Amino acid sequence: MFARSYSRPARIILALSGAGALLLTACAQNTEDGGAPAADEKTAVEISEVAEVAATLPQKNQDSGTLVVGVNVPYSPNEFKDASGKIIGFDVDMMDAVAAVLGVTAQYEEADFDRIIPSVQAGTYDLGMSSFTDTKERENSVDFTTYFNAGTQWAQQAGGKVDPTDACGLKVAVQTTTIQDQEEVPAKSAACVAAGKPAIDILKFDSQDDAANALVLGRVDAMSADSPVTAYAIKQTGDKLEAAGEVFDSAPYGYPVAKGSPLAASLQQAVQYLIDNGQYQTIAENWGVEAGVIKEAKINGAVS
User: Fold this and answer.
1) What's the rounded mean pLDDT across residues 263-283?
2) Which residues have C-beta within 8 Å of that of residue 4, sequence separation ≥ 6?
3) Are residues 25 and 98 in the same domain?
4) Residue 239 lies in a domain
5) Mean pLDDT in the chain?
6) pLDDT band for position 24 (50/70/90)?
7) Which of 179, 203, 231, 262 is most exposed by smallest CB count within 10 Å?
8) Is residue 276 one of the residues assigned to a domain?
9) Is 178 among the domain residues?
10) How far apart are CA 196 and CA 21, in angstroms?
11) Are residues 183 and 221 both part of a single domain?
12) What is the pTM of this model?
């Protein structure tokens, strides 16, 4: 067992803030009350360090007592900021729980989404945590530890008639560098062109909230995002947005780490511990994303 050169409390209690993202009128604001679960809607989750799992951590993390985590916000409900500027969300509560099992503290560093994986490769961050879909292509650059399962879900303005399988000629909002931006919507657009129909006009936004705002304002016909994110945006807009079609192309979320890093196995053991002991389920239910829970954490679990 590795020796530790730091001390910290033996356990952590995860508490959800009462502030979060809100889309109520024409725009999304990630610093307004109402986005996160209220105090009486959440269940506190008490996490203790698990010595045998903590002992698997790379020595540098044991010595520092931290995991440096690259994150991009906002992407409600997974990672966003409350009114005080603190980063909160399902991903944050999960990572805090994982860190607690490993006997360290998660240190969050904000970055552009498309810079997180290169920064993990360079060693600037120990891992990324920003709703990364684990894909075969990304596995060529980094390893992943899976912790959730999400599909793609389109949204439209209430009363719309958008069909995600036939969106030729429509304006569709996506967040830049996401799976929807890089793979899903471009593939649909290419199919339109191949069929002699107009291409999809893909409008790219730096943040998911900006993409949702564009739809609320009628600047686009639809939005494509990960299923928990779309569901959350619909909920936050009241009656302004609704789902367009069903959830499709489900795939795992994962924490990217440097290729070959033993940290992947440490994270996998910590996530599996939380799954087996029920804390993972409670954290997911606190954020209303229990539809995407998994039973087994894997290393490089991409399905495509």
Assistant:
1) 98
2) 62, 63, 65, 103
3) yes
4) yes
5) 88
6) very low
7) 262
8) yes
9) yes
10) 41
11) yes
12) 0.77
